Amino acid sequence: MKLLTIYILGIITLTSFGQTRDPYHNENKNALNSFKTFIDRFKVLSFPFIAKTDCYNPDSLISVPLNMDNDSGFIDYVGPAVTIGHFPDTTNFYAVLYCTASFCYLPTLAVFTKDGKRLSKEQISNACGSGVGYRCSDSLTISSMTDIRQQLIEETFNVDKNGIEIPNSWKKEITINNFSIDKLGQINKKEEKKNKQNG
To answer: Under a CB-based contact definition with an 8 Å cutoff, are residues 107 and 97 in contact?
Structure first.
């Protein structure tokens, strides 16, 4: 009888142990589900992708709002944000483009592992301000993972008391940022500048 009692207690203990849930397993599963929800909001981008980015206007056919209750942790931002899309090659990781808004939408490039860990992130646009004697334009062209080009053109000139441009005061600066995503999911950046001047 004593042996039977020990045997039954052993079975109950083993059965209970098998039903014990690992809280870390549940946390990981929830995190993966959240990341899947986040990444599923992004549609595949067609290359070349070309956009005017000094104040990006999201394409209503492919862009959807991000949900801050689920998505803010992945982009480190709480506020208006929309998807632009994800790169076609998802073999090793996800490379996504999204916009956050201050006074206008500005595109950001981010790379994530398949389980939602962010590998790298880079804003790939400039907020063009405005003012007397200043003009600015910003554009983005993406041809592949290794060919991402952002170009900022800034023009400045002096004006007289009537707001008329003073001759030979015009200057133009072009800043070209070439980005590429390496095999480890890191975003690399190389900058080059070109200057033009009158006078």
So the answer is: yes
